[in-house]
Amino acid sequence: MEHHQPPIQKRGLTAIDGAMSLIVILLMVQMWLLTTALEALLAGHRETALPAALISAAIFGACLVLFLFVDKIDKEVRRR
Amino acid sequence: MMFQRRPSSDPLWKDEFSVQAADERYVNRRQFSKFLVLTSFGLLVGNLWILIRSLRHRAPVYPAVPIARLGEIPIGGVKQFRYPDAGDTCLMIRTAPDHYVAYSQKCTHLSCAVIYSQVNNRLECPCHDGYFSVNDGRVLQGPPPRPLPKVMLEQRGDELVAVGIDLNAEG
Ligand code: FES
């Protein structure tokens, strides 16, 4: 039950939910990027591929950092 | 590493299948986050594949293939032909006494075969009502995201010869 959770547990869950929402938003941007780059490639515009790949790599890095954050919170709260 | 189990005194089953309801919420979220990050990695691989494809791209060499004799089709008439390969159907249209255009017949939306409408003077895709200009192949209406690839024609003697394909037929 939610009301039996200690405050630290609750705060940890809120932080994790926030991080997960951010990952989901970043994933949607990355999906859009992939479809746009593919569309441009099929239309013969090859100049968009490099910036798309770089931004995609940056987004993956951000997702990884957010996952590390989730992992850290998980470790901290559950080890208490 | 974060994709491996972190060092813990608990056995693996205790760590991943916690008997505490509160802990289980954490496990679920952590595992779902891991799945999301792996999805992000998959999307990155897709983008890298596109990058490699575009870096390794070589300009294709198209054969010169005679399509029709001058005057073979009437004004407003259409001739279907295959270019550059046997599986690539194209349409040549005589729009004026001395003007011919040719396009790939494959719609740029979902690859249905487009047809020429003489009444509306445009190429029409019957699948989702995508219309293309007969002058330059650009999209007039509907879901197709790109113009129709244009087949480059050359007049050699009294023959019309297909010599290449222009993907950016627009403009
Ligand atoms: S396949 Fe041509 S409009 Fe959809």
Structure description:
The complex is a heterodimer of chains A (80) and B (171). Chain A is mostly helical and 80 residues long. Chain A is built from two helices and no strands. The mean pLDDT of chain A is 88. Chain B has 171 residues and is an alpha+beta fold. Chain B has two domains: 45 residues; 102 residues, 3-layer Sandwich (Rieske Iron-sulfur Protein). In chain B, 23% of the residues lie in helices and 31% in strands. Chain B is built from two helices and ten strands; from the N terminus they run H-H-E-E-E-E-E-E-E-E-E-E. The longest helix of chain B has 35 residues. Chain B is elongated, with a radius of gyration of 27 Å. The mean pLDDT of chain B is 87. At the A-B interface, helix 1 and helix 2 of A face helix 2 of B. The complex binds FE2/S2 (inorganic) cluster.
What's the helix and strand layout?
The complex is a heterodimer of chains A (80) and B (171).
Chain A: H1 7-42, H2 49-78
Helix pairs in contact in A: 1-2
Chain B: H1 12-16, H2 21-55, E1 65-69, E2 78-82, E3 89-96, E4 99-104, E5 115-117, E6 122-125, E7 130-133, E8 139-141, E9 150-156, E10 159-166
Antiparallel strand pairs in B: 1-10, 2-3, 3-4, 5-6, 6-7, 7-8, 9-10
The structure holds FE2/S2 (inorganic) cluster (FES).
